[in-house]
Amino acid sequence: MSILPFLAAGWIFLIGVYGMVTSRNLVHAVGCLAVAQTSTYVLLLGIGYRRGGTAPVFSDIPVGTAVVDPVVQALVLTDVVVGATVTALLLSLVIQIRKRTGTVDPEALTDLKG
Amino acid sequence: MSRRVRTTAFWLAAAAFAVIFTLACTGLPHFGTTLHPYGSRAVAASVRQHTANVVSSVNFDQRALDTLGEESILFGAVLGSVVLLRRARDEDRAAPQPRPVLPSTLLLGAGLLPVTVLVGGYVVAHGQLSPGGGFQGGVMLATGLHLAYVAADYRVLRRVRPLAVFAALDAVGAGAFTALGFAGLVAGAAYLENVLPLGTFNQLASGGLVPLVNAAVGVEVASGVIVLVAQFLDQAVEIDEPRHHGAGAGAGGGKDGDR
To answer: What is the pTM of this model?
Structure first.
């Protein structure tokens, strides 16, 4: 099955979204969002994989050796950085929600406040 | 929307996603294929630019403008967290209390702190040669500094981490990246184009603009993460909640962000 690694990425994405949909705690929901985002790392690295390829760093291997795709690796790096900062920003929002409303249960956050 | 409706909507969407995603996957190039047109071109360009670490070459040379955007997201997120987690009018600052620490923990932390910071600096400095770079090394530098909190206590951390300095360094790092791009314009080329002398392949001073941009990113990420973690630590350790006493969720959220 050569598409199994890609399907794994889709599976991780769905697990993350399922967690967000059923979440009863905003910190948990932010964690689930991070899980859903992880699926993009798996998908990108899966697409960039090359059978028999090594890391795309030529400091200790001769130039011309078969390497995996460096472009998707750079994209994953971008993805990780953005994911981490967005998680931090969302957690700050959760802290403020907890302070203002006294709850982190999204079901209890139904009132609109001006 | 009630819970049942929401869960049903999720399962319908998930089923549709699963079918369409699986169909799309069958159209992708095979897993482990030897044909990577973009990858091969990126490797060739990287070797041409004398940068041994192709990922760094992609990030800081071939796609430098994208990385500038990514770095701005980081800067914006840090700024947003600082604004969101500032001390509100009805909150008081409490002086953090010293806590007893096991001597073995203290010894381990004091021993590891300089080593971790050194390794972080090494990873940043060798971004153009070996795996790593400004982003990875910057996070290591920031994490290393927080060993002072883990192994000693908050007051020690505050002494080794002058927050105003790191907040300024964050801006300097972000600004340096933007400013380095003008080197290309001055030389008559495009913004962020690699116009500096390329040096010898696989030497520390190789890759032209790459080590400089990489260092700017390292400074920005390290100070950005330090400022970010400081906001969460402030919430957990220093800021009192006058209105919701006895509830630990605010502090708990801060610790989640810290770990």
So the answer is: 0.85
